[in-house]
Amino acid sequence: MEQLARHVLAYRRDGEGLGVPFSLTAVSFYERCVEAEDTLREWIMEAGFKNVTVESIEEYCCAASVKPKKEARISIFLACGEKH
């Protein structure tokens, strides 16, 4: 889990030194959050859990955008499943 979190938080390194449109940190942050959600769902299913759900808890992680006064808002999710 720590490695997955570190991967998401390393979004600022993507496109480093390239400038717009290649250094879009908000887009990179969003993409890494989507990847993390998919990876987490796969881990839970591979562990033998059934009825896996990954849902937003209506809280958000935010990152500054390259646009002035804009930010990326990514929902925080809760993952759960059943194991018998």
Secondary-structure topology with pairs:
Elements (H helix, E strand, L loop, with lengths): L1 H8 L15 H22 L3 E15 L6 E12 L2
Antiparallel strand pairs: 1-2
Keywords:
two-stranded antiparallel sheet, 2 strands, 32% strand, alpha+beta, 84 residues
Textual characterization of the structure:
- With 84 residues, the protein is of the alpha+beta class.
- It has one domain.
- The chain has helices at residues 2-9, 25-46; strands at residues 50-64, 71-82.
- Strands 1-2 form a two-stranded antiparallel sheet.
- Helix 1 (2-9) packs antiparallel against helix 2.
- The longest helix has 22 residues, at 25-46.
- It is elongated and about 50 Å long.
- The two termini are 23 Å apart.
How would you summarize this macromolecular structure in one to three sentences?
The protein has a two-stranded antiparallel sheet with strand order 1-2. The mean pLDDT is about 75.
Share of residues in helices = 25-40%
Main sheet characteristics: 2 strands, antiparallel
Uncertain parts: none
Element order: H for helix, E for strand = HHEE
Overall pLDDT level? 77
The largest beta-sheet arranges its strands as: 1-2
Number of helix segments? 2
CA radius of gyration: 15 Å
Total strands? 2
Number of domains: 1
Per the principal axes of the C-alpha atoms, what is the gross shape? elongated
Separation of the first and last Cα atoms: 23 Å
Fraction of residues in β-strands = 25-35%
Helix/strand class: alpha+beta
